[in-house]
């Protein structure tokens, strides 16, 4: 007995098991990108099974197996990790038998379904908190007890066995479309980003941003804006962007004179917008492609101009803030050389053009991601300082899979909610409710949709928030005549804004730790600086020319020019500053100009440019008059 205990004690620590599982999941995903995806239930079951296994091993990864004997909690978590893995792998082992029964639930599968649901809800709570977990529980009770609700809110009622059959067997619940996107596209994109980051590409992007903006007033804040937009092409996650670029930009902004709340807000807004930036957008973009049937590349093209407008407004707001606060210019010696940056690390970025080129040539996102990942590894060996050593490769796999875990659990948990929605017909009822409350008015329907996104998205990753609202509200917007792509991009924007909107603003909370500031205050300032994201979606919902729908090249160019000028006017209004402080009538005038120029109409554009000329002349002569009087 003593020998047995000693041999167990000498076993490797849990973290080695986690690394092995993460590597297995990564290799499985890469294999399917090259040789084809397995049937949905096999692909998704393997993915979520490994994910849950990793979630439960995470709290005890530093323990040796022998220490588990002394640690009751650790021993329990190992058992739960293995149990959750087996419950999800049941779909793989008995795949043919389950298909042959066309979804009929056996007694064993009833209990396995209950266990899978409980494991998933608990894993989601552990990874991203209570909000979506509580929401999923509410929907489960709605499925079971909805027959007691009056009127349109109720339904005929479903037994627990029927609910488990719908959620656990087939592709309508836990193993639905959201998890499918995570198990195919998202994990490979995130792994690609993790390898780029490990090779030093993230630092290269930040050095490029610093070298481009560092010699101007408010350079560190502008570098945060440019750097986060570039980093969005790698990670596509607001919190990850904050924790990556914010560690450099926030302390530097504070040292140059920005208030803590302002520094945190600038980073939070800049990082949130990274999810909009093509070519590698956030997980929600892949979900949108799957839900709408529109190609990912088409979605990326449509998102380009709104993303540019978003960052133009933020960049100009940051500049005006630095002028108002008289932020000093950073010393030249602290600004990296652009040429030296490209010489030392420019090769690390060449995998991004590879990804774009392959996308343009019609290859699948999975295949493009894996080829770009392989290219990133090969390119890292051009210079000794950027080598991806075996240790770095393992670290990249580990960090990549860790980044996928919260997205995967959130998407699987959202699958529970969507499964209940499809089972009970709640989606049609919600769409009817939106149309009814809005009175058929598109503007009010859009406002209700955005409010729903902000409420349902509290504390959730953008992908999970998008899934929920797209399932419930996007059909209503389409029924009111809004183009499908515009409707879903509107929902995407609205879901993204939950990252900076109080009371639960994940990006603001991430920034608060780096800025040592109140997260609620950061969220309030973030809403001010990110005002464009609250406004621009309404314009492309009304007129999809802004996202390139049914528009010629000439129309897109003209529209882009007027929209960019309108976005600059919005920043003047937000900051109340141009050459000097604006009076209230000028701020109102600039918001009117913004609305005119973003409307994508020749008539409103002419009105907007005439009014803009009047406002600029008024501001110039007011300044001269003030000087003369002084």
Sequence-ordered SSE layout with sheet pairings:
Elements: H1 2-9, H2 14-35, H3 40-57, H4 65-70, H5 72-93, H6 95-100, H7 107-128, H8 131-145, H9 160-168, H10 177-199, H11 201-213, H12 219-231, H13 238-255, H14 260-273, H15 283-292, H16 296-324, H17 338-345, H18 351-360, H19 365-379, H20 390-424, H21 426-438, H22 442-456, H23 462-472, H24 474-479, H25 484-497, H26 506-515, H27 519-529, H28 531-542, H29 553-575, H30 584-597, H31 602-629
Helix pairs in contact: 2-3, 2-10, 2-20, 3-5, 3-10, 3-20, 5-7, 7-8, 7-9, 7-20, 8-20, 10-15, 10-19, 10-20, 11-12, 11-17, 12-13, 12-14, 12-16, 13-14, 13-26, 14-16, 14-26, 14-27, 15-23, 15-25, 16-28, 16-29, 18-19, 20-23, 21-22, 22-23, 22-25, 23-25, 25-28, 26-27, 29-30, 30-31
Task: Summarize the structure in words.
By secondary structure, the chain is mainly alpha-helical. The protein has a domain at 551-630. α5 (72-93) crosses α7 (107-128), α10 (177-199) packs antiparallel against α20 and α16 runs parallel beside α29. Mean pLDDT is 83; it is low at 4-10. The relative contact order is 0.10. It is built from 31 helices and no strands.
Brief summary:
With 630 residues, this protein is mainly alpha-helical. The chain has helices at residues 2-9, 14-35, 40-57, 65-70, 72-93, 95-100, 107-128, 131-145, 160-168, 177-199, 201-213, 219-231, 238-255, 260-273, 283-292, 296-324, 338-345, 351-360, 365-379, 390-424, 426-438, 442-456, 462-472, 474-479, 484-497, 506-515, 519-529, 531-542, 553-575, 584-597, 602-629.
């Amino acid at each position: 007995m003593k020998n047995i205990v000693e041999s167990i004690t000498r076993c490797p620590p849990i973290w080695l098991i986690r690394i092995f599982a993460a590597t297995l999941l990564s290799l499985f995903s890469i294999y399917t990108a090259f040789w084809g995806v397995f049937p949905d239930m096999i692909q998704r079951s393997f993915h979520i099974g490994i994910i849950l296994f990793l979630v439960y091993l995470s709290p005890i990864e530093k323990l040796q197996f022998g220490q588990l004997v002394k640690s009751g909690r650790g021993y329990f978590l190992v058992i739960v990790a293995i149990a959750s893995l087996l419950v999800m792998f049941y779909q793989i082992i008995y795949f043919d038998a389950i298909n042959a029964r066309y979804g009929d639930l056996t007694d064993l599968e009833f209990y396995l379904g209950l266990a899978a649901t409980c494991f998933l809800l608990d894993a989601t709570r552990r990874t991203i908190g209570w909000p979506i977990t509580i929401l999923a529980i509410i929907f489960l009770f709605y499925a079971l007890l909805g027959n007691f609700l009056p009127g349109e809110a109720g339904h005929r009622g479903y037994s627990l066995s029927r609910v488990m059959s719908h959620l656990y067997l087939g592709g309508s619940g836990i193993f639905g479309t959201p998890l499918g996107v995570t198990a195919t596209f998202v994990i490979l994109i995130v792994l690609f980003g993790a390898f780029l980051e490990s090779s030093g590409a993230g630092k290269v992007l930040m050095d490029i941003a610093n070298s481009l903006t560092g010699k101007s007033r408010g350079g560190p804040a502008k570098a945060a804006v440019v750097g986060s937009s570039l980093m969005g092409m790698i990670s596509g996650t607001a919190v990850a962007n904050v924790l990556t670029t914010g560690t450099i930009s926030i302390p530097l902004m504070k040292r140059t004179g920005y208030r803590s709340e302002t520094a945190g807000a600038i980073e939070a807004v800049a990082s949130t917008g990274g999810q909009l930036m093509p070519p590698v957008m956030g997980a929600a973009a892949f979900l949108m492609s799957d839900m709408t049937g529109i190609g990912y590349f088409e979605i990326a093209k449509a998102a380009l101009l709104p993303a540019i407008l978003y960052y133009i407004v933020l960049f100009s707001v940051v500049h005006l803030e630095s002028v108002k606060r008289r932020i000093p210019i950073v010393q030249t010696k602290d600004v990296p050389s652009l040429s030296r940056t490209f010489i030392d690390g420019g090769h690390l970025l060449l995998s991004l053009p590879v990804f774009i080129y392959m996308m343009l040539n019609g290859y699948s996102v999975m295949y493009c991601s894996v080829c770009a990942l392989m290219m990133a590894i090969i390119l890292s060996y051009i210079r000794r300082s950027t080598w991806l050593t075996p240790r770095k490769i393992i670290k990249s796999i580990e960090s990549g899979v860790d980044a996928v875990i919260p997205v995967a659990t959130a998407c699987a948990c959202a699958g529970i909610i969507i499964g209940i929605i499809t089972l009970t017909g709640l989606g049609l009822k919600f769409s009817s409710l939106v149309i009814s409350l809005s009175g058929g008015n598109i503007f009010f329907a859009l406002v209700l949709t955005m409010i729903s996104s902000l409420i349902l998205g509290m504390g959730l990753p953008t992908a999970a928030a998008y899934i929920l609202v797209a399932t419930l509200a996007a059909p209503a917007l389409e029924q009111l005549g809004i183009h499908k792509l515009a409707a879903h991009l509107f929902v995407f924007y609205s879901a993204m804004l939950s990252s900076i909107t109080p009371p639960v603003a994940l990006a603001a909370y991430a920034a608060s730790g780096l800025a040592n500031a109140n997260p609620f205050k950061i969220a309030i300032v973030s809403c001010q600086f990110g005002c464009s994201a609250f406004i621009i979606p309404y314009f492309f919902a009304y007129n999809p020319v802004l996202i390139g729908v049914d528009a010629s090249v000439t129309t897109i160019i003209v529209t882009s020019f007027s929209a960019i000028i309108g976005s600059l006017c919005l920043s003047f209004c937000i900051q109340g500053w141009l050459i000097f402080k604006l009076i209230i009538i000028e701020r109102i005038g600039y918001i009117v100009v913004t609305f005119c120029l973003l409307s994508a109409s020749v008539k409103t554009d002419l009105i907007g440019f005439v009014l803009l000329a009047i406002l600029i002349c008024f501001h110039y002569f007011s300044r001269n008059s003030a000087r003369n009087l002084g």
